[in-house]
Amino acid sequence: MSPSGHLRVGVLASGAGTNLQALIDGVHGTDGIELVCVGTDKPDAPALERAAAAAIPTRVFVRDDFPARDARDEAISAWLRESGVQLVVLAGYMQLLSTGFTDAWAGRLVNVHPSLLPAFPGIRAIEQALDYGVKVFGVTVHLVDDGVDTGQILAQRAIDLPSARTVAEVHIFLRPLEHALLCDVVRRYARGTVRPDPDHPRRMLIGDPPLPS
Prior knowledge:
Layout: E1 7-12, H1 18-26, E2 33-40, H2 46-53, E3 58-60, H3 69-82, E4 87-90, H4 99-104, E5 109-113, H5 125-132, E6 136-143, E7 153-160, H6 167-191, E8 195-196, E9 204-205
Parallel strand pairs: 1-2, 1-4, 2-3, 4-5
Antiparallel strand pairs: 5-6, 6-7, 8-9
Helix pairs in contact: 1-6
């Protein structure tokens, strides 16, 4: 994706922006990676303050300002293109995206989800896992398609939490995993080492290719 070693990243966020902050602290301005814009659907999202503190341009796309979801998503997509974005990261963006948007950014649109997909997709993933009684929790960074957390998996990390009882307790342990994994995937995009596995239609390879024998 980025043979020149430079990667322009756009971020969409709806809430506190902790994953955005992880990207600002962990990859922005390093290894040729630049966060060039942050968009949100919430005018009061704390993510806007985080972006402003890092001098990253922002824009708000309130759903009610557009006649339909497709129109809003096209406006977001146009803004990302105007900003020269090469990779879009969903960092706690809570709006469903239209098929037109996911198709336009296919292979360049990533999300972080607080479960080991395909287990517990959608909202309240940690709550689902607790209700099921799992002992191992985790996070997934995946490509986004037109399904609900059904895109190809890029990376996953797990942690044993056999005594976990509450969502807040699990979040404490998962947040560092989310932050580290998301930053690692963005770095690999910048290096140009994210690619499909020619032998498996669902598998994505994100490491350096093997050396020729």
